[in-house]
Design brief:
Layout lengths: L1 H28 L7 H33 L3 H34 L10 H26 L1
Helix pairs in contact: 1-2, 1-4, 2-3, 3-4
Amino acid sequence: MHDIALIGAFTFVWFGMVFAISFLEAPLKFRAPGVTIPIGLGIGRIVFRALNIAEILLVIGVVVTVVAGRPSTAVTVLAAVAAVVLIVQLGAVRPALNRRTDRVLAAPEGVELPRSRAHFVYLATETVKVLVLLALGILTVAG
């Protein structure tokens, strides 16, 4: 039972960080007075790099605890899904977003590039991850 509580703790910290940064901080920073697209993108790079490092540490904690504790199949599956979504984001989606950010930052002032599909893919995977983490966290509390 101790292992399931630890999985829940890792999960809810991870959930809270992702929700707060991806769904609150990221969109709101562009509404602040004086924050230009280049400044917002620069801030975003730093914040998301830190978030991704924290996520890697948290997913390691979840995976190690799942392997060591042998929780229910549902907990194991949800933990695996969260890990896979993070791997996809870090391995495929974030590099595409970084390339897009490089292009935006290199564009001459006043030139606006078309919207990126990678951003929508990231938002979709982030939404899936948040829902999976919420379900995993609830399951650890209820279980």
